[in-house]
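Field log, afternoon session.

UNIT: design team B
ACTIVITY: writing a sequence onto a fixed backbone
BACKBONE:
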């Protein structure tokens, strides 16, 4: 594959200015091989230092001005106007952004475009949901002799960090609701999937007031801690690994001030009951465990199969897995693609070796084939709880399979697990499924009946129990996560009633308003 143009990002966005960076930079490579069979050089990004990181939080602090800045006090309609302007700008770069996602994180071309389109839809839907929130708040309620005008207000400064598997979508699912609710943000892109920001820096600069959006580049370890140590971050919004979330929180001097919006790792199981439709179960498990090479927090990461159907399930699942072909992401119908993190093949091999040493076998013919930028999907059976693959989130194309006789076994494993995002359950008998669902809904936050796990549609709540998430994301819930209820109370007397009446008529306050946003 040949890249058309290299991208060298030279600026970062702080305080409404694109600042040129003359210090260290990082080379960006794609693991996709060039004509010399080497990783393809895609460009460079600035590697900012501590001072630059601190300047970002200082500018965000100035823009927010403890809730008195232009952005947090602006009317919702005006904030929406800025967001609409931004989305128009962003849409102009659909091809450039999608192609860079494809190159950097090796997501198939089709899925890279899907990520872009889904993000645009998310922004537009968030605007609509925000109007709806505003309409609900455009009224007074009265209790005893007090009128209350209740709305949702911003929290402050949001430090936003997204993951490499959805570097645009998941990062923006944090950033966009945070902004539209009136917060100021500092965004640090994921470790892979960063070059497309080249096309967005100017749009962010032009569409939002100075300091409201600050975009900084560099190593998380170099720029995350100084930002947190200032104690000025009000919300840590991170989709990624719990170890990063914990480390960043620990730098904050005032934990009760810090709100957390986190989407973390998961180990979602699929449970195949004895009466399951095996064809459906095989197809959904294949998609669920291997879409984007299993590099999704929602991927099925372990499959429990009832002993009566294990042989049939394994036979047809392995056949389907072995039919897959590793392709470069630009190829038509690419499904299994190279792994963007050069360290991942080695890590996955360690998991496979550990399982095999402890009694598991690679049960599909092509399983265990590993190169410097790929791992062929590998089915491991029988997997036991002393193996690393049983506990660790593989985030790659390894599918551990466990046989069960008694449903209490997977239920016990799920209770003992440190994760609790979703489960897929395959079966057709309502007598068995009814009580099972009642147990499962209390172990995870989404039970998928006869279908694979997934985040979407984005109107549904996306969250998890235990170490899988803190707070809930969805178009509606994210607006809540990044805001707080705040209200004006006025005793029913002449002075107050005249004041309120005057303010609603003359639009002297952006908050006190009964205007309906259409
Ligand atoms: O990595 C976690 C993503 O939120 C998964 O989203 O289920 O739409 O692929 P998805």
């Amino acid at each position: 594959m040949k890249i058309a143009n290299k991208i060298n990002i030279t600026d970062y966005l702080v305080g409404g200015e694109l600042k040129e960076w003359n210090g260290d930079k990082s080379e960006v490579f794609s693991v996709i091989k060039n004509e010399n069979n080497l990783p393809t050089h895609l460009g460079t990004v600035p590697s900012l230092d501590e001072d630059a990181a601190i300047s970002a939080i200082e500018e965000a602090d100035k823009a927010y001005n403890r809730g008195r800045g232009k952005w947090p006090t602006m009317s919702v309609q005006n904030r929406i106007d800025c967001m609409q302007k931004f989305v128009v700008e962003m849409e102009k770069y659909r091809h450039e952004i999608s192609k860079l996602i494809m190159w950097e994180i090796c997501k198939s071309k089709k899925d890279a475009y899907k990520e872009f389109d889904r993000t645009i839809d998310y922004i537009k839907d968030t605007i609509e949901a925000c109007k709806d929130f505003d309409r609900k708040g455009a009224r007074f309620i009265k209790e005893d002799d007090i009128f209350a005008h209740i709305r949702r207000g911003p929290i402050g400064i949001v430090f936003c960090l997204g993951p490499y598997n959805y570097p645009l979508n998941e990062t923006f699912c944090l950033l966009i609701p945070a902004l539209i609710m009136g917060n100021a943000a500092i965004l640090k892109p994921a470790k892979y999937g960063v070059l497309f920001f080249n096309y967005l820096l100017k749009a962010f600069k032009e569409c939002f007031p100075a300091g409201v959006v600050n975009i900084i580049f560099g190593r998380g370890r170099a720029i995350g801690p100084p930002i947190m140590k200032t104690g000025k971050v009000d919300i840590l919004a991170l989709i990624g690994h719990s170890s990063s979330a914990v480390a960043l929180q620990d730098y904050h001097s005032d934990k009760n001030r810090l709100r957390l919006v986190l989407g973390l790792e998961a180990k979602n199981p699929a449970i195949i009951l004895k009466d399951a439709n095996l064809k459906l179960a095989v197809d959904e498990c294949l998609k669920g465990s291997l879409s984007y090479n299993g590099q999704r927090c929602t991927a099925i990461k372990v499959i429990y199969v009832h002993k009566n159907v294990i042989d049939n399930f394994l036979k047809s699942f392995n056949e389907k897995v072995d039919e897959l072909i590793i392709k470069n992401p630009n190829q038509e119908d690419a499904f299994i693609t190279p792994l963007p993190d050069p360290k991942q093949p080695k890590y996955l091999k360690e998991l496979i070796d550990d399982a095999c040493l402890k009694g598991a076998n690679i049960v599909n013919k092509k399983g265990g084939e590993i190169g410097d930028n790929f791992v062929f999907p590998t089915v491991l059976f029988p997997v036991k709880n002393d193996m690393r693959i049983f506990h660790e989130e593989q985030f790659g194309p390894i599918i551990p399979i466990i046989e069960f006789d008694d449903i209490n076994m997977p239920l016990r494993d799920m209770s003992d697990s440190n994760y609790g995002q979703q489960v897929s359950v395959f079966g057709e008998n309502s007598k068995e499924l009814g009580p099972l669902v009642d147990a499962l809904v209390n172990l995870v936050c989404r039970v998928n009946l006869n279908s694979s796990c997934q985040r979407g549609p984005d109107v549904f709540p996306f969250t998890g129990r235990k170490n899988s998430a803190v707070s809930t994301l969805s178009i509606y819930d994210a607006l809540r996560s990044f805001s707080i209820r705040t209200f004006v109370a006025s005793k029913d007397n002449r002075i107050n009633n005249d004041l309120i009446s005057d303010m609603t008529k003359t639009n002297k306050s952006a908050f006190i308003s009964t205007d309906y946003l259409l």
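LOG NOTE: Residues 30 and 40 are 5 Å apart (CA to CA).
NEXT ACTIVITY: expression trials, pending approval
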